[in-house]
Amino acid sequence: xxxxxxxxxxxxxxLGYVSDxxxxxxxxxxxxxxxxxxxxxxxxxxxxxDAAGGCPLFAGKQVAGKGWCSAWAxxx
Length: 76
Ligand code: SF4
Hints:
Radius of gyration: 11 Å
Structural class: little secondary structure
Mean pLDDT: 97
Bound molecules: iron/sulfur cluster
Strand content: 5-15%
CATH class: Few Secondary Structures
Shape: globular
Order of helices and strands: EHEE
Distance between the termini: 28 Å
Number of helices: 1
CATH superfamily: High potential iron-sulphur protein
Number of strands: 3
Helix content: under 10%
Largest sheet: 3 strands, mixed
Low-confidence stretches: none
CATH architecture: Irregular
CATH topology: High-Potential Iron-Sulfur Protein, Chain A
């Protein structure tokens, strides 16, 4: 399996990625809500129940299902 994206990865930090959506920086990202998670993001490559999956913004790594980043987008 692919390595998990580390919250401290510079690319992760650039997008405000956290492996737990509850830890997102709400001051920096006022549109964040704890209901927004990687596994319900339009870009997530996996099912809504998956604990981890791919994301095109972080090629070669797996993002946490309950993670979040500032590029979160609602599924159509
Ligand atoms: Fe998670 Fe979506 Fe950000 Fe990818 S774009 S890291 S799936 S919130």
